[in-house]
Amino acid sequence: MKISRRDFLKWCTASAAALGVSKFELDKLESVVMAAESTPPVIWLQGSGCSGCSISLMNTVRETTIDNLLINKISMKYHHNLMTAAGDLAISAMDETVSQYNGQFILVVEGAVPTGNGGIYCVLGEKDGKPWTMLDAVKEIGPKAKYVIAAGTCASFGGIPKVGPNPTGVKRLDKDILRDKTKNEIINLPGCPVHPYTITKTIIDLLLYGMPRIDSYGRPEEFYDQEIHKICPFRGDDEVKKLEIKGCYKELGCKGPETNNNCPTRKWNNKVNWCIEAGHLCIGCADQDFGKERFYKFTEVK
What pTM was computed for the model? Predict the structure, then answer.
């Protein structure tokens, strides 16, 4: 889907505040768009998961509409929840995009990738009369993409689907399935779900600058450089033994000291609130070990 340079820049200007795009970056983005017939298309695959990251993306900040960005501005070519096509028509649209934009498109992977029994536990559709699994799709399409984004903790680290005893054999994209097979390192955007700002700003930064600076876990340093506990507004408060509106939840099993994410600064629901400020502990949803341990510590209250 091609868009006019004017329409794309109009959207970016209106969204600059929400996405943290400066006037300098807008000028640079104009140069990038002028040099291309259209912005890079996006293929969004969904594996084992709850579709929470897609839902998060559509429940975006009030200053802009993320679905408008991904469908009309960055040319979403495949997303089985958002596109009207289905079956062979949908798969054909994906194949045409991969062929036409080989080495240029952005692949977003949401959900875990099962590998047990040849990946048969997660089937996206059929190709040549045979089941086409998530594992097949990632192996076939991943090496042809310019950038691969693992959206959410399930795609980044395995998440809940990786927690045993699970016979599906979930493996990590960056360490197991696509290791050394992609043009660039895979960008992990953990979170359950990933924040819409995080994934949208990542895509825009890819258009402007290319690969972001990533840490040892494959996460962009811009979004995952701070430990939640260190920027928690309740840090230093007395530790409480039951959930309250204010207080440190470390004794209850808060994972803030073990988790890096931008929740305290970006917040959720149009910047209204976030887990700890709403009276709940951090369950470490962006941590690579999310789901392996119980969320709460049970303490005796006297």
Answer: 0.84
